[in-house]
Give the backbone structure.
Amino acid sequence: MIETAAQNTPSRLRAGREPPRHANRGGVVIRVCFVCLGNICRSPTAEGVMRHLVQQAGLDGAIEVDSAGTASYHAGELPDRRARLVAKRRGVEVSGRARQFRRPDWEHFDYVVAMDLSNMRDLQESVPTQEHLKKLRLLREYDPEAPRGASVPDPYYGGDEGFDDVLDLCEAACRGLLEQIRRAHGL
Ligand code: 4NP
């Protein structure tokens, strides 16, 4: 778990050496989209954490990060205030406006990363072809400590501590996802 700024200890996310600068080999950009239900709590948190890690690694020109929701009812809204606050305390920016995941997104992104099994099922139902299905993953698959099929739980109806948990789970999994992308794409 990473420490919070409130505990007056530096966050591992925040603590950064000068990032190494990697050439973007051949100009190929790897595109990742995190998907939850509303796109106001979990997926924008994962997006913020992943972007932070990508920047620390000096790979911001090589990996594009976005998020979306399976539902449209929060479209246009900022991320939940609690998600923004918890992230800010750890030096992570959670921003952007909510949007619904759309059919063209299956084409655009290389990795479509769901937060829970319900998001997975909704995405499976919208997939244009079986080929696109290969892009779909569950976020916590990338966390070596997580049990098989583990989800990032929905914090929306709970207390603030749920948002801290979401950030911890996203960080552990995004570290694994970044490693996997680096290995798979030679970055
Ligand atoms: P998210 O959380 O899917 O992580 O953005 C939720 C946000 C809103 C609702 C449910 C979950 N809602 O029911 O409005």
Q: What stands out?
A: Residues 1-11, 16-20 have pLDDT under 50 and may be disordered. The chain is about 35% helix and 10% strand. The chain has one domain: 26-185. Residues 23 and 142 are 25 Å apart (CA to CA).
